[in-house]
């Protein structure tokens, strides 16, 4: 079973994504605040929590925090291989350029309004299949 950490503060979005992921046998863990995610990353880094197969996160979060979480994961040697999909309604070319310039670009940057939950699930499954294919090719 694949583990996904959903970093989201909107209860309605949490319910929708939790339901669709659980129907497909993903183990979904929710982090609603920056502090909850920071604690989870600490536990993962120190082996006290299972490493997720994917982090799915919104960047527009109360008290900011979304891009700092992204930066923390991408710049930490122990965490940087965890794939991150950003799922947000925040479209700002300057912000996206800053992410690229600082080398903290996520594995996918998706605009919520452009993807239904079913389409998101398809993208996630496609990602996992590609990873499995790569792993098989390298073995």
List keywords for this structure.
alpha/beta; Rossmann fold; 5 helices; 17% strand; globular
**What share of residues is helical?**
40-55%
The largest sheet has its strands arranged as 2-1-3-4-5
Return the average pLDDT rounded to an integer.
86
β-sheet strand percentage = 15-25%
Uncertain residue segments: none
Q: In CATH terms, what is the fold-level topology? A: Rossmann fold
CATH homology-level superfamily: Response regulator
Task: Map the helices and strands.
Blueprint: E1 3-7, H1 11-23, E2 27-31, H2 34-45, E3 54-57, H3 66-75, E4 84-88, H4 93-101, E5 108-111, H5 117-138
Parallel strand pairs: 1-2, 1-3, 3-4, 4-5
Characterise the protein shown here.
The chain has a five-stranded parallel sheet. The mean pLDDT is 86. With 139 residues, it is α/β, with parallel strands linked by helices. It starts with a strand and ends with a helix. It has one domain: Rossmann fold. The radius of gyration is 15 Å and the shape is globular. Helix 3 links the parallel strand 3 and strand 4.
Gist?
With 139 residues, the chain is an alpha/beta fold. The chain contains five helices and five strands; from the N terminus they run E-H-E-H-E-H-E-H-E-H. It has one domain (3-138): 3-Layer(aba) Sandwich (Rossmann fold), CATH 3.40.50.2300.
């Amino acid at each position: 079973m694949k583990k996904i950490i959903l970093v989201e503060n909107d209860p309605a979005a949490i319910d929708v994504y939790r339901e669709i992921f659980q129907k497909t046998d993903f183990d979904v863990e929710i982090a609603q605040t920056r502090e909850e995610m920071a604690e989870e990353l600490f536990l993962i880094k120190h082996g006290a929590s299972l490493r997720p197969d994917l982090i799915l996160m919104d960047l527009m979060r109360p008290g900011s925090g979304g891009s700092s979480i992204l930066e923390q994961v991408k710049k930490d040697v122990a965490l940087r291989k965890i794939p991150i999909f950003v799922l947000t309604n925040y479209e700002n070319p300057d912000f996206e350029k800053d992410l690229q310039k600082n080398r903290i670009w996520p594995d996918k940057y998706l605009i919520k309004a452009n993807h239904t939950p079913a389409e998101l699930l398809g993208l996630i499954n496609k990602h996992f299949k590609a990873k499995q294919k790569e792993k098989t090719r390298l073995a």
